[in-house]
Amino acid sequence: MILRVCISLLVLLSLAQGECQHNTKPDSPNIVFILVDDLGYSDVGYMGYKKGLNTPNIDQLAKNGRIFAQAYAAAPVCSPTRASILTGKSPAELKLTCHIPGLPMAQYLERQHKGKSLKEAFFIDHLLLEEVTLAEALKSHGYKTGFFGKWHLSGSGSARSNSEGVINEKFQPQHQGFDVNIGGCAYGQPSSWFAPYNNATIPEKEEGEYLTDRMGDEAVNYITKSKNKPFFLYLSTYTVHTPLKAPQQVVKKNDGNTYHAMIEKLDQNVGKLMNHLKQNDLLENTMVVFYSDNGGLWGNPPLRGNKGSLHEGGVRVPLVISWPGKIEPGKSETPVTSIDLFPTIMEVVNNKSTIADHMEGISLLPELLHQKELKDRPLYWHFPHYRKEGQDMGAAIREGDWKLIQDFESDSIYLYNLKKDLGEVENLVEKHPQKAGELLEKLKSWQKKSNAEMPQKNKDFKSETPH
What we know:
Number of strands: 17
Strand content: 15-25%
Family: Belongs to the sulfatase family.
Order of helices and strands: HEHEEHHHEHEEHEHHEHEEEEHHEEEEHE
InterPro entries: Alkaline_phosphatase_core_sf, Sulfatase, Sulfatase_CS, Sulfatase_N
Helix content: 25-40%
Domain Sulfatase N-terminal: 29-349
Signal peptide: 1-16
Oligomer: single chain
Keywords: Calcium, Hydrolase, Metal-binding, Signal
Largest sheet: 8 strands, mixed
Number of helices: 13
Distance between the termini: 43 Å
Strand order of the largest sheet: 6-5-7-1-8-10-2-11
CATH class of the largest domain: Alpha Beta
Radius of gyration: 21 Å
């Protein structure tokens, strides 16, 4: 804990010093980060796994940029991944390993533990203010910063409160480095997809407007106001989270498929944003990141599992990074994760990043610029929580082609070779016990190093099995 505080102080000192020196390069690129909520690995047309998707603008972005075919979220649910993007730290280190519940925390945990042999591990319900966020780091380099959409890092209980999403205002984006905050509060899903939004951070305008369109319009307006200075635009859509709602004419166009209609509305607003950058001659000086916070809920072929699962379908997500004239288009098969994005962006901004030295993630810029291939390294997940979907209450490690899942509740181990078995069908523990033991040891060592919170036995649990 003392070491962590000291590192945070050193980082803040570095940021303050950079701000005093106005350390902004004349050619500092704009950063546009589009974070989609619950968009699955195969929920975009360019992946080619699902029929009937209307995503021409996202597909064009992928055609012009680098597709990461083996990109991962740091968690199979939203809040931990969002925190990892903003801090460059793993959810385990942040003590924020679960989605922040809409129920009050005590009520949520009581529900989760009922009939379970383990109690979920401790986790906090907000992003701590002492963490240095990506927005704060970019501000120290002279950037304007704007947040639009879903935050979900500022307190539990929003679904049972009448405060229009504001549980603890001091943990909202405007206190985490963002100059502008429209939409960001404690909500994990919108109170309404159509105005009025019942969201205290969204000024009401036209009744009946669609939330995805409104956030796209706000992002475009922000670019217009900020284009004379380097800017960081974080468009964090509530799309495509449940409840599934879209304008009726778009649903009809998609043969009654509301989910596909929501994806199409997302695509329209990505197009709106990209066209505005082009019309204002900003494309060649703007790096665009398109990403999802976890796996999809509605099937992720050819992967196994959905959101909430430690199988590939819960954690492997779409990722495209585009920067015309700088990043050569193509596809990368390098496994990468959300904690890599902070150091990547900071290296883009300042050529090097002193902050990245204190992070678990690595900069992807050398690979993006074809300077060198990234070395193989283990990727980790720690998810000591219950979900209804698939493999939960566990942890995982991927290294090379191998992936191991540790199930806390059943005390079981699963080993897969993803190159030969992307669908994670065959458990290879008995065939490769040495590899399983090696990976499990690395996973446990990482958990210890990260001071990961572990689940505890539930004393109230009564086994139905007779003794």
